[in-house]
Amino acid sequence: MSAPSPRTVAQAIEDAAASSSTGYRFLEESPDVAPYHSYADVERMSARYGGAMQAMGLRKGDRVALILPDNADFVFAFLGAVRAGIIPVPIYPPTGLGKLSGYLENTLHIVAKSGARVLLTSSEIKKILGTIQAEAPGLEKVVGVEGVRTANDKLRPEKIDLDDVCFLQFTSGSTARPKGVTLTHRNLAANVHAIMPVGLSIQDGVDHGVSWLPLYHDMGLIGFVIAPVYHRNSITFLPPLLFLKRPARWLESISKYKGTISFGPNFAYALAVKRIKESEMEGLDLSSWRIAGCGAEPIRADNLRAFAEKFSRIGFDERAFVCCYGMAESTLAVSFSKIWTGVRADIVDGETLWSKGRAEPVAEGTPRAAGIVECGAAFEGHEIKTFAPDDEESVRPLPEREVGELRIRGPSVMQGYWNDPDVTKRSFAGGFLRTGDLGYIAEGKVYICGRSKEVVIVNGRNYYPQDIEWEASQVEGVRKGNVIAFGTMKGPSDRERVVIAFETSEKDEAGKKRLEADVRKAVQQSVGLTVDDVLPLAPGVLPKTSSGKLQRAKTRELYESGELLGRTSAREVDKLDLVKEIAKSQIGYFRHRLFGKSDD
Amino acid sequence: MTWNRESVHKELIKVFGQHKQSEVDVSETSEIVGDLGIDSLGVMEVLAEIEDTFKLTIPDDALRDINTIGDVATSILTRLESDGRLEG
User: Fold this and answer.
1) Which of A406, A492, A497, B17 is the most exposed place for a label (fewest CB within 10 A)?
2) A65 and A130 both lie in a single domain
3) Is residue A482 part of a domain?
């Protein structure tokens, strides 16, 4: 499909205003509340919010941080800012549960890095943000959104160009070093075109999306706020926490509003299988659902199969599954599997894949066969290629079926990270964006095998080992700088397990037990994720490189093979090339995911 | 159905005991995330169970004041009391 001439998001909002038959519906916890705003109304409301921001003194190119837990507030403020040329910086709202100090630190870093002049939030949250204003240089005021809802300021028109920055998506970085993916209107127009008509064969004004996804995250924001504006599709939004509390509300909404499109990470489908009761399925009809997208975290075919099995009784068709590969640095989507073909896997010899990095096709049922989920081909005008991780200029693409680092190029790829030239430079290799993911290409289709970035992904959210290690290091008795955190699929769990290994000079068993408990509590409390295993080790046991750098991938390998606890000798210096070592271990790590085995 | 402080307390200890991820004793002062290791997904599941048991709604905003099981108890007692369903 040939691309129409690209439009800015601001233009798309004005064009959509001609439509009074489609728009956004915002569901709330009480089933009786479901306000609907046609796109004509969205245009008016966004003008009100945008005008109010101009009245606060914000000008084109200024940044405004948004911490808005209410979906309607968020959508109007975001679109209003964009129309005024003000660059919104979405930040997730605090959920509470005792992690406030970590939350405030993260928020402060993002506000400071973005250089936001104003932070728009609810009055409730404003109260707990406390010292942020004093500590963030350049932040002039924190404004409660309640006054904006009824403001009367007119939006002064601004000329918005395709190459103007549309918004900043902060992502993929440890707390201390957040990175702001900088997206222009041209990036958005390109990716929206790739997603909607090309990838999903969307019918303008006809397809109806249902989304519980958080709007401060790319999948919810671009997929269900921005893309639909371009194509005037109706969207029904649920609050994310409502989905987590009552997953049945997701499927009820698809049934009630005859939704045709809905997306979620792998965990969402697993959660629906685990939590939705037979009694809650009574009377539901999912037969309208033609695109069930799955992305944002590694896809486990077993989870999707279980979902299809459970919900086929109420009209779910497994062909609706679309497996997606994407990242904020590529606006949102990199590739989608072909619609209405369901989950497809490449059956390859596992042993050759892990040991040689080659995907050799074998017949299904062959011993050692592994199924790798297919995520489709690059969109028109975009490229996906694999390279050896040390190919710094992307000069020698690897042949098909050879595992390497996936790199992408095209109009959806960001220009860089906001105000971060060094990190930006390291993220590109010869014009290609380095995704940090390991995979291969076969017949033009992408297959993901692992990742070279050492993030831990739990419930669709990325956690950085550095953050976990830093918190553990604060505990008295832990040897500073000798803590390693990592994720593993090995062990009795259907999600990634979090392991912390640290060195201590404590020899007494009771003392070690106490330390274990202290480390567990410190990390759980501050990072907010369940720690599965804590290992106090003798000094010198954690593997380091010859230059003294801790080796996470190696530690994971030793842990998974059961050797870590047996190591009592002096530190073994590992001379393996670090890149190769990480790649090898990561592929090994993925093996547990693919086979779904927990005991080999 | 009406509740009293003791029965609310007992019910909460029971529910959180079923969902805890760490080998620790559950008490009024247990921190839900820090001590019991229940992550945000787990917390929402427990809340759904609690809402069904006590027939009430704990709004998202209220989560920001919750850290320990005692905080959950306070939140529930307040709501039961305003519904006239708290004895003693």
Assistant:
1) A492
2) yes
3) yes
Q: Are residues A128 and A258 in the same domain?
A: yes
Residues A445 and A476 in one domain: no
User: What does the pLDDT profile of chain A (600 residues) look like in tens digits?
Assistant: 566 799 999 999 999 999 789 999 999 999 888 999 999 999 999 999 999 999 999 999 999 999 999 999 999 999 999 999 999 999 999 877 666 777 888 899 999 999 999 999 999 999 989 888 889 989 999 999 999 999 999 999 999 999 999 999 998 566 667 899 999 999 999 999 999 999 999 999 999 999 999 999 999 999 999 999 999 999 999 999 999 999 999 999 999 999 999 999 999 999 999 999 999 999 999 999 999 999 988 888 888 999 999 999 999 999 999 999 999 999 999 999 999 999 999 999 988 887 788 999 999 888 888 889 999 999 999 999 999 988 999 999 999 999 999 999 999 999 999 999 999 999 999 999 999 888 999 999 999 987 666 778 887 777 888 888 988 988 999 988 899 999 887 776 667 889 999 999 999 999 999 999 999 998 888 788 889 999 999 988 898 876 677 888 888 888 988 888 776 543 443 433 434 444 444 444 444 443 333 332
**Domain total of chain B:** 1
**Residue whose C-alpha is closest to residue A289's, from A232, A231, A209, A212:** A209
The B-side interface with A (CB below 8 A) comprises: 21-22, 24, 31-35, 37-45, 47-48, 51, 57, 59-61, 63-67
Chain A interface, best mutation among B16, B39, B52, by max A CB count within 10 A: B39
Instruction: Measure in Å the smallest separation between the Cα of A575 and chain B Cα atoms.
Output: 37
Domain count, chain A: 3
Torsion of Cα atoms, A537 then A543 then A547 then A549, to 10°: -70
Cα separation of A265 and A175, whole Å?
22
Kindly report the nearest CA distance between residue A519 and chain B, in angstroms.
10
Q: How far apart are CA A359 and CA A361, in angstroms?
A: 6
Is A339 a domain residue? Answer: no
Q: Which amino acid is at A368?
A: R
Same domain, A400 and A527: no
* Chain B residue numbers touching A524 (CB-CB < 8 A): 33-35, 37
**ipTM of this complex prediction, to 2 decimal places:** 0.96
Burial class (CB in 10 A: 0-12, 13-18, 19+), A506: middle
Q: Round to whole Å and give the CA distance between A273 and A460.
A: 16
Q: CB-based contact (8 Å) between A96 and chain B? A: yes
CA-based nearest distance B22→chain A, Å: 8
Best mutation target among B31, B60, B61 (most A Cβ atoms within 10 Å) is B60
Q: Determine the Cα–Cα distance for residues A234 and A259; give it in Å rounded to an integer.
A: 9
Looking at the complex, does the CB of residue A137 fall below 8 Å from at least one CB of chain B? no
- Domain span at B70: 3-87
Please tell me the distance from the alpha carbon of residue A59 to that of residue A38, in angstroms, as a whole number: 28
Q: Based on the domain organization, do A474 and A429 belong to the same domain?
A: no
How close B67 comes to chain A (CA, Å)? 5
